[in-house]
């Protein structure tokens, strides 16, 4: 599935990186702990998180993640969006909480790290 | 404690109590060789309607009034009890829940059952309908009394004290940077409020608000103090700390805004939701802060009069 | 969903606590304690799925009245935290699945989340 399909299917608001939505998604990861994502995240995954501060961009870049989806309708900080644009990391927002969003992604065939 | 849907009280007790607790250990038995003519005397003098037949404490059968009547009706030719008893005995084990005994009463229409020790098969006593009823009533009465005492204590703390105004004040000390002990105060506060008869929903809200406040003190400050003032109408909490203070309170109140260092986030905190959670839980919240000195948080939660004093009906 | 069934779906180990024969009404997957405190609905029986196996998770569960925590990635708390959980009547589970997998599997089997919304 491509990021663009994800946006449509799950009604996500794109905050930045709209031109990068052609990427193919390789899997999904959900965590609010940066150290955890750094240790276990894999390239091409969609990262679902509550965190909105700019450090998330650094992590996504480091692990070559496909995109960051922020949940609970939270808005990323201005600094975060700016950094994400610079690094070419798309950030999207979903109104749903983590469990529900991950559940739907999973049902849509996006699997997690084993 | 977490509870899940409660069964009616009697049923609950039926599961809680065991046959062992209700049974009659006063064991009256007859030998299989004893004659039927002697049986009438046994039943009558003990005022029982049935009796287990045993040899060396092992249950062989049961003989009851009905068997006696049948024997009389058929000519009363004397013989051993062994010949007239029912060998097909419905028994209960001492460790079974009382509800099994109740079910068997309904199922079989007998009013008495021999009770056996599960492992050895040894006959321990009998249990009758009366025994079951008596035990249930006894337990219900005890529980009712305990409940009354508990409620009395909680509700009358404020009512029994004669004063123009009554309030209870207690304090907790928070050690800064000590993550293991963080949360102890809010936990203790919650238990105390419940003990005072505060409505559980209110106790929960207060506990959440104080927990967030406590965590802020632990994360950012050197230490702090929580002062709780409870009176019949409201709970007022003051959290005061010695720490860096908050330079921009308005910004700090924004959901998601956080100045927490990374190691704090790794512990699951510092998401910037703390002050908001407190605001959501409280009826009123005030923050004042001096940079370089510390922060003071005031939280008010209204409690209706009914929530701290129950009517014992 | 019955807790016994949840345990099966997650192939989880029981660290402490009982009974397993009880209904869990909602699930929350979260590592941030403040979020847990604000999103768990009052009065519902909730399962918390989380990476964090330290004392504050137990504390948060106690304060928010969450009866069951399932740690993911095979994580387990230290013994004094297990004792603390036991004292408070909490059930602790541990599953080898990641938070993503665990959430996905439960959701797929019909477990509702805190927001109450579902797409069948």
What key attributes describe this structure?
heterotrimer, B: 313 residues, alpha+beta, CBS-domain, Heat Shock Protein 90, five-stranded antiparallel sheet, three-stranded mixed sheet, 13 helices, 10 strands, 21% strand, elongated, disordered N terminus, disordered C terminus, C: 120 residues, alpha/beta, Udp-n-acetylmuramoylalanyl-d-glutamate--2,6- Diaminopimelate Ligase, Chain: A, domain 1, five-stranded mixed sheet, 5 helices, 5 strands, 18% strand, globular
CATH superfamily of the largest domain in chain B: Histidine kinase-like ATPase, C-terminal domain
Average pLDDT taken over every residue of chain C: 87
What order do the helices and strands of chain C follow?
A: HEEHEHEHEH
Tell me the quaternary state. Answer: heterotrimer
Order of strands, main sheet of chain C, comes to: 1-5-4-3-2
What is the level-2 CATH architecture name of chain C?
3-Layer(aba) Sandwich
Portion in strands of chain C: 15-25%
Question: Any chance you could write out the topology, listing elements then pairs?
Answer:
The complex is a heterotrimer of chains A (114), B (313) and C (120).
Chain A (H helix, E strand, L loop, with lengths): L2 H7 L3 E4 L10 E4 L3 H7 L4 E5 L5 H8 L4 E4 L7 H10 L3 E3 L4 H10 L7
Parallel strand pairs in A: 2-3, 3-4, 4-5
Antiparallel strand pairs in A: 1-5
Helix pairs in contact in A: 3-4
Chain B lengths: L8 H8 L2 H4 L13 H11 L3 E6 L2 E7 H9 L7 H4 L7 E2 L4 H11 L3 E5 L6 E6 H32 L7 E8 L8 H12 L4 H21 L2 E8 L3 E9 L6 H4 L9 H4 L8 H8 L2 E7 L3 E9 L2 H4 L5
Parallel strand pairs in B: 3-4
Antiparallel strand pairs in B: 1-2, 4-5, 6-7, 7-8, 8-10, 9-10
Helix pairs in contact in B: 1-6, 8-9, 9-12
Chain C lengths: L2 H8 L2 E4 L9 E4 L3 H7 L6 E5 L4 H10 L3 E4 L7 H9 L3 E4 L4 H10 L12
Parallel strand pairs in C: 2-3, 3-4, 4-5
Antiparallel strand pairs in C: 1-5
Helix pairs in contact in C: 3-4
């Amino acid at each position: 599935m491509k990021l663009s399909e994800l946006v449509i299917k799950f009604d996500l608001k794109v905050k930045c990186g709209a031109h990068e939505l052609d990427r193919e998604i390789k899997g999904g990861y959900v965590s609010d702990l940066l150290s955890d994502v750094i240790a276990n995240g894999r390239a091409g995954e969609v990262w679902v998180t509550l965190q909105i501060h700019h450090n998330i961009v650094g992590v996504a870049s480091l692990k070559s993640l496909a995109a960051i989806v922020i949940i609970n309708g939270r808005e990323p900080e201005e600094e975060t969006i700016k950094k994400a644009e610079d690094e070419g990391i798309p950030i999207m927002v979903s109104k749903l909480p983590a469990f529900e969003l991950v559940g739907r992604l999973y049902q849509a065939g996006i699997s997690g790290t084993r | 404690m977490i509870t899940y849907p409660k069964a009616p009280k009697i049923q609950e007790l039926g599961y809680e109590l065991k046959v062992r607790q209700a049974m009659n250990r006063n064991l009256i038995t007859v030998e299989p060789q004893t004659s039927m003519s002697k049986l009438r005397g046994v039943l009558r003098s003990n005022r029982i309607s049935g009796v287990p037949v045993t040899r060396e404490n092992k249950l062989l059968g049961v003989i009851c009034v009905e068997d006696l009547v049948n024997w009389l009706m058929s000519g009363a030719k004397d013989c051993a009890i062994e010949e007239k008893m029912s060998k097909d005995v419905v028994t209960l084990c001492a460790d079974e829940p009382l509800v099994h005994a109740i079910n068997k009463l309904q199922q079989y229409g007998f009013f008495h059952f021999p009770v056996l020790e599960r492992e050895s098969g040894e006959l321990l006593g009998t249990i009758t309908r009366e025994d079951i009823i008596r035990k249930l009533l006894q337990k219900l009465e005890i529980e009712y009394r305990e409940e009354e005492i508990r409620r009395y204590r909680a509700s009358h703390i404020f009512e029994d004290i004669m004063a123009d105004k009554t309030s209870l004040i207690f304090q907790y000390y928070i050690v800064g940077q000590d993550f293991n002990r963080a949360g102890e105060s809010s936990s203790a506060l919650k238990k105390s409020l419940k003990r005072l008869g505060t409505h559980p929903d209110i106790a929960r809200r207060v506990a959440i608000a104080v927990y967030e406040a406590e965590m802020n003190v632990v994360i950012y400050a050197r230490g702090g103090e929580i002062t709780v003032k409870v009176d019949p109408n409201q709970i007022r909490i003051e959290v005061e700390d010695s720490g860096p203070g908050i330079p921009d309170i308005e910004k700090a109140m924004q959901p998601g805004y956080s100045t927490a260092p990374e190691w704090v986030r790794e512990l699951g905190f510092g998401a910037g939701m703390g002050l908001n959670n407190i605001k959501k839980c409280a009826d009123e919240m005030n923050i004042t802060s001096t940079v370089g000195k510390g922060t003071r948080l005031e939280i008010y939660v209204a409690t209706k009069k009914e929530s701290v004093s129950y009517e014992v009906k | 969903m019955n807790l016994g069934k949840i345990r099966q779906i997650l192939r989880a180990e029981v660290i402490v606590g009982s009974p397993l024969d009880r209904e869990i009404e909602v699930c929350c997957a979260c590592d941030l304690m403040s979020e847990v405190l604000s999103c768990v609905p009052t009065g519902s029986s909730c399962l918390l799925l989380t990476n964090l196996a330290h004392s504050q998770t137990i504390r948060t569960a106690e304060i928010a009245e969450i009866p069951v925590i399932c740690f993911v990635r095979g994580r387990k708390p230290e013994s004094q935290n297990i004792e603390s959980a036991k004292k408070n009547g909490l059930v602790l589970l541990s599953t080898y699945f990641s938070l993503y997998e665990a959430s996905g599997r439960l959701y797929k089997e019909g477990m509702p989340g805190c927001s109450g919304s579902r797409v069948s």
